[in-house]
Structures are given as structure tokens and as C-alpha cells.
Amino acid sequence: MPQSILVTGGTKGIGREIIRRFAQEGFDIFTCSRHQKDLDQLQDDMKKEFPDINLYTKQADLSIKEEVLSLATAVREKFIPDVLINNTGVFLPGAIHDEPDGNFELMMQTNLYSAYYLTREFTGAMIERKSGHIFSMGSIAGLTAYANGGSYAISKWAMLGMTKCLRQELLPYGIKVTSVMPGATLTASWEGVDIPEERFMKASDVAESVWGAYNLSPQSVVEEIVIRPQLGDL
Q1: How far apart, in whole angstroms, are the C-alpha atoms of residue 107 and residue 154?
Q2: Residue 124 domain boundaries
Q3: For the segment 20-61, what is each residue's pLDDT rounded down to a tens digit?
Q4: Which protein family is it in (predicted)?
Q5: What pLDDT is stored for residue 76 in this prediction?
Q6: What is the pLDDT of residues 104-142, one digit of tens each?
């Protein structure tokens, strides 16, 4: 029976590259997006590149709790994932003191609450079978404060704290928990900026680091992955 992975927000950027990396290893895959057309395009692309894998998709807005729970129900109809990648996120720039009203709530709901609710939906089954690996996609913004980060940085600091707590709770059950904190990565979030492409990391490098962390023996766990552009943060 193939191993399985659930990647939220898997149609673009880092999420898409993680899907490609695990597809190379024959994993069954489930992912979601707010946009059905992006899911359809992903299906077409993956069928061409990896015709033998099973890729399941569901349209869902994970800033809404009910849609997170609906996604979990749909995934359980296919499998209990061996790997859970909490990757869904949104970035809206702004300072805490004057960012638009609602930015805080949207980014906390999307970046943090979605991971909290989804993780709770699968940890019981992982504990019962005594295996699993949960990755939380954070950011260097969860390590270093910077201007104009606002509520995004708050959500990523909170994500790191939640993931540290999960690590301690789940380690007796053989379940690994890893925080992934990338720096500036060439994804749609940076479209339109006047910065040379070589200043960014490749999304495929982040995906490769996730695969490497997953592929260790049961006796070892990578607790945190901090990966930055070679020439420094942007």
C-alpha cells in the first residue's frame, strides 16, 4: 500500500514542489486550494509527469473552520496521511499599528488556526498507529521581527510555538513534528518586485529539505529547518 501525504495549499510555490517531490516517491497525495481551476491544472500537470500516482483534490478556503473540517472528512475517505504538511498561508503587508482592520484575523485564521484544526483531526489516528510526520510551514518571520511584517509575523511566531508544543506532546507515540522556516523563496508572493531571481531560494530546495527530514530513520527527527537565500534575507 503506497504511503500518503496531505499538503494544504498545494497548487503553487512550495506546496506544489513538495507534491512533486513526494510524487517522485510514489506517494498517494491529497491537496486543496481555494480555486478549482488551479486544482484542475495541477491534476493535468501531475498526470502528465506522474501518471501512476493517485492525486486527490478538494476546493476549500482554510480560513474557515467548517471548510477545514470538511477537508479532513474528505481526506479520511481516502487515507490517514503518513505525512501532513500544514502549508496554507497568506501574507498581507502592514504594520501592527495601522494595518487594515481584519488583516490580523484573516492571517491568524489562515496561517495558524487552519493548521491547529487540521492537525487535531489526524493526531488521534496517528497516535493509535504510532507513526506519522507533521510539518508546519512557518517563516523566518517567525524568528526575526521586521518592519511591515505586522500580523503575518505574529501568525508565524505562533505557528512555531504550536509546533514546538506538538513535538513534545507527540514524541512518545513515534510521531515526528518539524517546523520549516524558509526565507525569501521565488513564489507568487513575490511577483512584481524588482529583485533579481538569483536572490531568491528555489521552492524545490525547500521541498527537498522536507523530503530529507522525512526520510531519516525512526530514531532521529529534524525539529526545525531554517533555510535562507545564500546572500542573506530580503
Answers
A1: 9
A2: 4-227
A3: 999 999 999 999 999 999 999 999 999 999 999 999 999 999
A4: Belongs to the short-chain dehydrogenases/reductases (SDR) family.
A5: 98
A6: 999 999 999 999 999 999 999 999 999 999 999 999 989
Alpha carbon distance 81, 17 (integer Å): 18
Residue 232 lies in a domain: no
Give a yes or no: residue 178 inside a domain. Answer: yes
Q: Is residue 234 part of a domain?
A: no
C-alpha cell recorded at residue 137: 510551514
- Please state the domain count of the chain: 1
* pLDDT of res. 189: 62
Sequence length of the chain is 234
Contact between 225 and 178 (Cβ < 8 Å): yes
The stretches of the chain forming alpha helices (DSSP H) are 13-23, 36-49, 65-76, 103-108, 114-129, 150-170, 203-214
CATH of the domain at 73: 3.40.50.720
Q: Where are the alpha helices (DSSP H) in 81-149?
A: 103-108, 114-129
What's the mean pLDDT in 82-91? 96
Distance CA 124, CA 173 (A): 11
Residue 107 inside a domain? The answer is: yes
